[in-house]
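Request: Could I get any protein with tokenized structure?
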Amino acid sequence: MSLDQLTNHSPADPARPRRIPAWLLPTGLLVGFVAVFLILFGSRLLPALPVQTVPVITLRTAQAEFNHQPSTSANRQSGQTTGSLLFQASGWVEPDPFTIYVPTLVDGVVNEVLILEGQTVKKDQLLATLVDDDALLDVEEAERRIKSTESGRTAHCAEIPIIKARQAAARESIAAEEARLAQFVDTAKRLEAVNSGAVSEGDLIKAQLQVTAQEAAVAQARSELLRLDGELAKIAAERDAIDDTLLEAKTKLSRKKLALARTVIKAPVDGTVLRLHAAPGKKRMLGMDDPNSAVIAELYQPDKLQARIDVPLSEAAALGVNQPVILSTDLLPDLQFHGTVTRIVGEADMQRNTLQVKVRIHNPDPRLRPEMLVRAKFFPIPAGKLPPREGPGLAQSASTGRLALFAPKAALFDHSGSSAKAWIVDAGRAQLREVTLGTTKRDDHLLVASGLLSNDQLILPPHTGLSPNKRVKPINP
């Protein structure tokens, strides 16, 4: 075999691989894209069936129109008559009226925690302790300062008896000096009264000088008494200042003892631990931005619970204070709890389109816990519990009725007792609905109990050519 035969393969050589045509890959991609497009959007390329539609009408009706409804199982089980059911809504359980926060009133580090979540506690039961070494030293320091101040006061006031004795001696000295002055004055007057020449002039001058000298001695004795009085007044003023300092030291000691006592955290009421924010070694600080930075635990009282219910705005007009409510929960499916609306919150939820109300639970079960979901059934307010009017023109909310749906009779077909059928337009397609009807009729419209939603678009006859999920084009008549 030559070199040319080794390097050049003939077209008929079976060992040579066959090459795929270059146009096959883009053609396959294009075909796949067209297939996916037809699968996803092919139905939209077909012409839609034109249909005439009318909307479901929403009206607020009087409660009497719903009195034909049978009493609920809740009423039968409880043995109470609360009237016809107005509406239902969901919510959750929470403490009534607030969660009880147990904080530490001093900054510190948690030393010991004696409770756990869900534990029942009694009033004044020890919940946790903080490290108290610094607080003990502060109390000892404040006590030593008081003792030192009291000792200084005692030493300072010890001079008072001595000064008073000096005052007594000074008074006696003044009396003696004044008596001697009187003697010298009498002698001088006698010498002055003697006839001239009987007494030498030197004796007369000497007597007068003795009077002057004695007057100075009396003045000196009196000044000594004044000095002692001033010294005694100074000691009294300094004693008052020491008393003020001692009172301030005692106040500081009381603060230190209070801070020491606050390292022991106790339960303020009987309750159950809802949440625990403390752990050994965790710091608790009052001056932090975190609202729970100083909280040890959150408590709630099992016998004081309420439900926070999200009521749709379409039903909120039937709400009122003192309105009876029956609550149920999946945790206790066989139990129902009676409650009363206590207040309606001041702001609606724009995103949920709801208004929240607080419902006090009259007979809470110990197994109920905050944040448990509940279902609430609202009933009309008894006549004797209607709240007073707030002002002229303000109707009672409980007497305003509830919203009801009315469907045109022409759009309903296959009537059978209180049931019927209707075609609606849902996202551009026809859908068949089973409808339950009430007994009320208004202007060729029938009350809808279930099966339709507010503003659903009903398809008017003829219904030929309709099938589930068929594309339709609504045309208003």
About this structure: The first helix runs from residue 3 to 7. The radius of gyration is 51 Å.
